[in-house]
Amino acid sequence: MAPQHGPRRARIAFSDSAAKQLENITSEAEIHALDRALVVVSVDPDVGEPIPGDAAGPQLRQYTDDVEQVRVLYFVTALRTVVVVAYIEV
Predict the structure, then answer these.
(1) How far apart are CA 68 and CA 82, in angstroms?
(2) Minimal CB count within 10 Å: which of 48, 55, 72, 82?
(3) Average pLDDT in the 48-60 region?
(4) For residue 7, what pLDDT band results from cuts at 50, 70 and 90?
(5) How many Cβ atoms from other residues are within 10 Å of residue 72's Cβ?
(6) Over the chain, what is the mean pLDDT?
(7) What's the pLDDT score for residue 3?
């Protein structure tokens, strides 16, 4: 009998500005906090709250992890890839 796997997690990609923010992270605590938030978003891309905006572009979402004090702005592509637009420490 084949092992049962959970639902497939979304792939995470970073915009240029988010990638630049990542380059500036030096603390283990910040890396851990961001990693935790990204895992949550990759498991359930719809977990974040929609951010009102222009209907012409992708629907931006915001996920806030109150435990780790992290906020991530992202959108989800048609293929369920999560594109992180910005990582903002709260």
Answers:
(1) 20
(2) 55
(3) 84
(4) low
(5) 24
(6) 87
(7) 59
Name 89's bridge partners: 70
Query: Residue 40: what residue type?
Result: V
Q: For residues 45 and 76, is the Cβ–Cβ distance under 8 A?
A: yes
**Helix (H) or strand (E) run with residue 23 in it:** helix 16-23
Q: Contacts from 69-73 at CB under 8 Å and sequence distance 24+? A: 69/33, 70/33, 70/34, 70/36, 70/37, 72/34, 72/37, 72/38, 72/41, 72/48
Q: Are strands 82-89 and 61-65 parallel, antiparallel or unpaired?
A: unpaired
Helix (H, G, I), strand (E, B) or coil at 90: coil
